[in-house]
């Protein structure tokens, strides 16, 4: 009777296959999370930039109503639209548009302003 402890070749191959599938799933999950973090970083930058720009527009530091800026090799176009709500109020909307992975993306921010004579 030959009673040896150890694993057979078949058991080792099955274990390697399970580990390979597990590593493939983990790698895919890691890349998706990393892409999500990068996307959130861009969105955070754009939202902070938009807050700053709309403050410049409302205080008349910025006199242009459109322009372009660059961040992480992307071109972002911005423009404003003013809507008069009534004789004392107007709405200022700042739009930002860009291309990301071939998809058109947009961001907007609004402020209600008192019209000064």
In short:
InterPro entries: N_methyl_site, Pilin-like. Keywords: Membrane, Transmembrane, Transmembrane helix. It contains 1 helix and 4 strands; from the N terminus they run αββββ.
Q: Would you write up a description of this structure?
A:
This protein has 117 residues and is an alpha+beta fold. The protein has a single domain (9-114), classed as 2-Layer Sandwich (Pantoate--beta-alanine Ligase, Chain: A,domain 2), CATH 3.30.1300. The chain has one helix at 9-58, and strands at 66-71, 74-84, 89-100, 103-114. The chain has a four-stranded antiparallel β-sheet with strand order 1-2-3-4, with helices on one face. The protein is rod-shaped and about 100 Å long.
CATH fold description: Pantoate--beta-alanine Ligase, Chain: A,domain 2
Beta-strand residue percentage: 35-45%
| Tally of structural domains | 1
CATH C-level: Alpha Beta
Number of helices: 1
Mean residue pLDDT: 88
State the order of secondary-structure elements, H for helix, E for strand: HEEEE
Low-confidence runs: none
Q: Can you give the helix content as a percent range?
A: 40-55%
* Classification by helices and strands: alpha+beta
Query: Termini separation (Å)?
Result: 105 Å
Radius of gyration: 27 Å
CATH architecture group name? 2-Layer Sandwich
Outline the biggest β-sheet: 4 strands, antiparallel
Major sheet strand order:
1-2-3-4
The 3D shape can be described as rod-shaped
Number of separate strands: 4
Transmembrane segments: 6-26
Keywords: Membrane, Transmembrane, Transmembrane helix
InterPro entries: N_methyl_site (IPR012902), Pilin-like (IPR045584)
Protein name: Prepilin-type N-terminal cleavage/methylation domain-containing protein
């Amino acid at each position: 009777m030959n009673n040896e402890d150890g694993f057979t070749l078949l058991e080792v191959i099955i274990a390697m296959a399970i580990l390979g599938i597990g590593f493939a799933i983990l790698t895919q999950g890691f890349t998706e999370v990393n892409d999500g973090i990068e996307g959130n970083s861009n969105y955070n930058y754009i939202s902070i930039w938009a807050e700053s720009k709309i403050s410049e527009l409302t205080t008349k530091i910025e006199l242009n109503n459109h322009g372009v800026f660059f961040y992480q090799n992307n071109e972002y176009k911005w423009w404003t639209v003013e809507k008069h709500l009534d004789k004392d109020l107007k709405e200022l909307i700042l739009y930002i548009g860009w291309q990301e992975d071939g998809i058109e993306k947009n961001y907007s921010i609004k402020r209600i302003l008192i019209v000064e004579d």
